[in-house]
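Any chance you could type out a protein's amino acid sequence plus the matching C-alpha cells because I've never seen that pairing?

——
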Amino acid sequence: MKIKPLLVYWRPKDIQPVLDGLKEIPCDQLFLNYMSYPWNYDISLAFFKSNPEYTHLICHPNDLVPTKKVYDKLVENIKDKDYPVISGVCNWDTGKYKDYLNITSNLPSLKYSERFYHKISKNRYPNLIFKVPWAGFPFMFIRRDIILKVPFPPDCAKDNSFRPIWEEKGGFGGDICWAHSLDFHKIDQYVDTSCNMKHLRFYGKMLVGVKPPSIEFFKYNEDKK
C-alpha cells in the first residue's frame, strides 16, 4: 500500500520544540501560520482536495512535539490494517493531569454546561491500538476518502460559526466537532498508545492578530531517505 500523507500544521504560536520535531517528519508539510479559525481548516482542506496524490491528511496541533518514530509507527499501522482514522497520544497537560492521556472513554458534549471528559490514565492501556470516541488531533492520520466524506471543518462548526472556540468562554474546538462528525457518520477512530508524544499545553504566546497570517509549503526531499 502506498502512503503519501500531507501534514498540516495549524500554527498560532511559535513553540521551538514543535518546530524542531516537524523538521524530522519525512513528508510534505503545509503550515497555516497565525490564522484565525476557520481559515486554517478551510485552506488546508482546499489544498488537500486539490492535490489528489495525497492519501492521508495528518492533523497536527500547535503544541504537540512530533517524532519520526511515531510517524513511522503510524504509517506501519496503516499499511497493516488501513485504519480510516488513527493517531498517537500525548499527555493531557504538563500540570495537574500530566499522568492522563488526551483521549476519553466518552464523547464530550458540544454543550459546555454538559461537557465532561472521562480521562484515561497513561498506564491503563500501554502499547495498544483501540477505538476511542475522542482524541483531539494528536498527529492524526485521516484517510482521503474520509476527508472527502465527512465535512471538514465539521458541519457542527459551520452551524456555530460565531461560537467561541475556547472552553473558558463556553465554546468548543474543532477536535470536538470532528469527533461528533465521525460519530454521526459511524466512522471509527483509533489511537496507538505506543505512539506517545509530549504535549506542551499552555506553552508559548498567542500570535494570531500579532503576526501577519501566512502559508508555507515544505516539499519533502525523497533523496533524504
